């Protein structure tokens, strides 16, 4: 049973999602990345107070859109970085390579903690995913 409050929350999330998509189309290409704080303020029409807890909602929306295939990329730089839509295949591939590198670093550490080689650990993960 959907309450009026739940319905209002769903509508608000759809509006936020649409604002996010609309803003991302203004930031095509890494050189046009938008920072987390500015993007949060646009999407939620308020300033964030706690960088980690408050921006979780934004990261959740970004992840949702990525799961649907929207190529929202991110970049970290010495002066901040931000989010952008990949403009070229090369930009998207660079972003994906950075993600793969982070993922392999995590898996490598997991393998070391388990005291097995990374290839053995990857094999175990592959078997677990099939089963």
- Distance between the ends: 35 Å
Task: Please report the number of helical segments.
Answer: 6
Round the mean pLDDT to the nearest integer and report it.
92
Binned, the helix content reads 55-70%
> How many separate structural domains?
2
Major sheet: order of its strands?
1-2
Outline:
This protein has 131 residues and is mainly alpha-helical. The protein is 65% helix and 6% strand. The chain has helices spanning 4-24, 36-44, 51-54, 56-67, 89-114, 118-130, and strands at residues 72-75, 82-85.
Polypeptide structure, described:
The chain has 2 domains: 87 residues, Arc Repressor Mutant, subunit A; 44 residues. The two termini are 35 Å apart. The model has no long low-confidence stretch (mean pLDDT 92). Helix content is 65%, strand content 6%. It is globular and about 50 Å long. The chain contains 6 helices and 2 strands; from the N terminus they run ααααββαα. It is mainly alpha-helical and 131 residues long. The longest helix has 26 residues. Helix 5 packs across helix 6. A two-stranded antiparallel ribbon has the order 1-2.
What is the secondary structure topology, with strand pairs?
Elements: H1 4-24, H2 36-44, H3 51-54, H4 56-67, E1 72-75, E2 82-85, H5 89-114, H6 118-130
Antiparallel strand pairs: 1-2
Task: Give the tags.
two-stranded antiparallel ribbon; 6 helices; mainly alpha; single chain; globular; 65% helix; Arc Repressor Mutant, subunit A; 131 residues
């Amino acid at each position: 049973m959907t309450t009026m409050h739940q319905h209002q929350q769903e509508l608000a999330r759809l509006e936020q999602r649409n604002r996010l998509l609309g803003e991302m189309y203004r930031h095509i290409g890494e050189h046009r990345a938008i920072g987390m704080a500015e993007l949060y303020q646009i999407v939620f029409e308020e300033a964030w107070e706690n960088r980690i807890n408050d921006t979780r909602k934004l990261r959740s929306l970004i992840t949702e859109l990525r799961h649907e295939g929207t190529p929202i990329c991110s970049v970290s730089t010495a002066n901040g970085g931000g989010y952008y839509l990949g403009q070229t295949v090369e930009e998207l591939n660079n972003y994906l390579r950075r993600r793969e590198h982070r993922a392999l670093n995590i898996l490598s550490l997991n393998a070391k903690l388990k005291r097995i080689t990374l290839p053995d650990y990857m094999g175990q993960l592959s078997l677990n995913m099939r089963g």
